[in-house]
Amino acid sequence: MAKRKSESTRPDQQQPYDNLLKSLLEGQEQIMLPYILPGAEYQATLNIEVIRNPLRVDRVYLVIYKGEPHILHIEFESGSDNAMATRLLDYHAYLYHKHGKPVISIIVYPFSTKTAISPHKETSGGKDILVFHSHVLRLWEQHAEEYLRKHAVVMYALLPTMDGANAQLLNQAIDEMIAYYHDDDVKLGRELRWLGILLRRATIVPSEDKKVIEQRLSMYDDLFEKDPKMQKILAEREVRGEEKGATKVLRKMIISYVAKHFPALTKLARQRVMQITQSSTLDTLLDDLFATSDEATARKLLESLTA
After folding, report:
1. 76: which of 21, 62, 240, 294 fits an S-S bond (Cβ 3.0–4.6 Å)?
2. Is 304 within 8 Å of 273 (Cβ atoms)?
3. What per-residue confidence (pLDDT) applies to 229?
4. What span, in angstroms and rounded, lies between the C-alpha atoms of 98 and 149?
């Protein structure tokens, strides 16, 4: 059975890393968007709530690109999706019809996974009847040192997902973040927490280097407690399971993820995760599911669960 995301679950059941990446842009669009689409000049954030069901996009902006108004559509994907190209095409057609401006579609992948291929072609009788171009930004192929050289501080939370990230580089980045956000403790706390969440999930940073950075980040825990939005993210992705309700949230996230990527396993996932009371077990399962792209492996992960 082909794996296809259920569009109706996207607004309410977003993957935690996708939510994190979307939140990173908020309030920093003017600075961050040119790093995602070089040459783009942010003009406005467009209202995505009015987009018809079942279409729900991650972020849509009005930008000036190559001297002309464009619609910039960004999707954040922390895993593979075989239907991603056609889903983008659906979004593209709707946004072009609604706004009457060229639409640039970009998929941002923070972690190594199977990615969408551009251009997507629809053929008939051996001839192309539709060719759809999109952009793919694989963060693990980006060079962390290049962002550090440019002092692109607003992108530093993403550095653990990039090539060349290590303790020395991340320590320097943290120093610059502290200086950059010196007058806003809440913003600093949020950026550092995002960096830490991505650091734990990323596989590029050596394990010993991770420990060094995590130890340093723990010094700023008091800053995180000041930010209600960060507390909501922590409730969704608290790896130690210390927060009240973490187990319930993790169960919901796992069932939602399986329903979108491995729909045939939804019933099994619901049965298995409801038997687990340890947040750490559920959290490990969620990470393992993010890392797999085939149904057989996902089934083994679920069947191996023990209370």
Report:
1. 21
2. no
3. 57
4. 40
